[in-house]
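# step 3/5: fold
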Amino acid sequence: MNVSELYVPDRDAIAITSMARVGRQIYLGLTGGPRILAVYDVDTGSIETLQDIFPWVANRDYCTKLHNALGALPDGSLLLGEGNHFTWDGLPVTTAYFDRELPERMLGRKRAQGFPDAQYNDFCLRNLNGWDRRRTDPGGRIIRYDPVTGTTSDIARLPDFLYVQSMLVDSLNGRAYGHTLPGNNFFALDIEKGRLENFGRISDFAHHNMVVTPSGICYGGWFDRGDGALKLLKYDPQENRLHHRDQIILPEIGPKVAGNQGVDQWLVTRNGRIFMGTVDQSRFFEFHPEDETFELLGTLSKGGRMTTMDEDADGMIWLGVDYPHMRLVRFDPAAHGRDRFIDYGRVNTTHERCYFHASCCFDGKLYLGETDGFSPSLHIVELGAL
């Protein structure tokens, strides 16, 4: 596989956790410090970090993040949802978590990039003894960033103590939708008016991302503890109502993989078809919104996760599957049977852990943003060479 790898040149950054393209610039939302945004220039092939987009986190002893919370608006500006480097319990990550999840040798990549003194406690707290939520984590912001002028403006504030865990932008209708950590609340935002409505807790966490259909309906997932099933969540802006539908996606939600369970990723193609992947065994579905049904197309891994999903210029869909060594699978929507899938294997065979959290397909190349490697990099795959 013809793949090149470029690192984000910032000491505080530890992951690429969102991505959005504007023209020939691909913006990389990071887990890191105040410089929460980097940009890859397609023409020069270089990455640079931008100014302190989140200056208010400069004196905090752990990371902030843009976690699936970066979207482009029609005027070329970007909408950013402030997240936090919290565990699924809604508490800051500590070194005990890293010691369990990431062997210390993972820091070797960070040190090799020119930061020889990097330690885990540079990016997280040693413990929670001195942590004060009211002082350091009063609640997240949603801001607008103008790449031309380099200026930011506040659009909305989340309710007290809540941060953006995912946010998708419906640029056609001037709206955005998201869910929070802590709490797993659903919110809807009128971007121009800056009006954010909180619809309260959804359930236990059951989706990594949501989707907006061509008709403007937002869908996600919810976890029904009564029967253990993953079920369909629906928000209709015309009704301004959140529906916990009884439509079953999976009769059993499946195990947590890297802390995630349920719905992992969605894609709306240029012709309006909608595809969805789950954490459990990288199951790949087509979603039919007219009757809100799911058609299983394939089960693509034992390790689980499907964190990237992109359509190329020829209508092929590229899927990032498996954990912790992500493989690249191509799906041909026009083919039938086994011929629909081609598995190209691991994207990176040198790292002991390499999977991707954000992606973008443009001009014959697939751009994959790495997470959990502790030295965030952009993998660039030449699709024509496969």
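# step 4/5: annotate
The first helix runs from residue 95 to 101.
# step 5/5: archive (pending)
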